Amino acid sequence: MRKKIKYPVVEAKIRASGMSMTDVAKAIGVPATTLYDRMSGVTYMTLDVALAIKELLGAEESIDELFADNDPAA
Predict the structure, then answer these.
(1) How far apart are the first and last CA of the chain?
(2) CB 27 within 8 A of CB 56
(3) What is the DSSP string of the chain?
(4) Which of 1, 58, 63, 67 sits in a 20 to 30 Å window from 50, CA-based?
(5) pLDDT tens-place values along the chain, 74 residues long
(6) How far apart are CA 53 and CA 49, in angstroms?
(7) Which residues are CB-contacts of 61 (< 8 A; sequence separation ≥ 6)?
(8) Is 53 exposed, middle or buried (0-12, 13-18, 19+ CB in 10 A)?
(9) Is residue 32 classed exposed, middle or buried when 0-12, 13-18 and 19+ CB atoms within 10 A define those classes?
(10) Neighbours of 28 (CB within 10 A)
(11) Measured distance CA(32)–CA(42) in Å, rounded
């Protein structure tokens, strides 16, 4: 079963780029399982990984905008 992604804005940016999560993980130098766990909220997203994803995607949004949590209870 696929884990629900916690950060819908960055997920949409990744999809729009044509890359998979595995592609992103390879490009930023982390294991795919680590990226999936961080994107799904199993483990915390770290600033270094968030910045690497932002840079890779060429996103103009702030880190706060890109990684806004889709869970209002969080």
Answers:
(1) 22
(2) yes
(3) -PPPPS-HHHHHHHHHHT--HHHHHHHHTS-HHHHHHHHHTSSPPPHHHHHHHHHHHT--S-HHHHT--S-TT-
(4) 1
(5) 456 888 999 999 999 999 999 999 999 999 999 999 999 989 999 999 999 999 999 999 999 999 998 654 44
(6) 6
(7) 9, 54
(8) buried
(9) middle
(10) 17
(11) 13
Please name the amino acid found at residue 66.
Answer: L
For residue 4, give the amino acid letter: K
Residue 74 CB: number of other CB atoms within 10 A? 7
**pTM more than 0.85:** yes
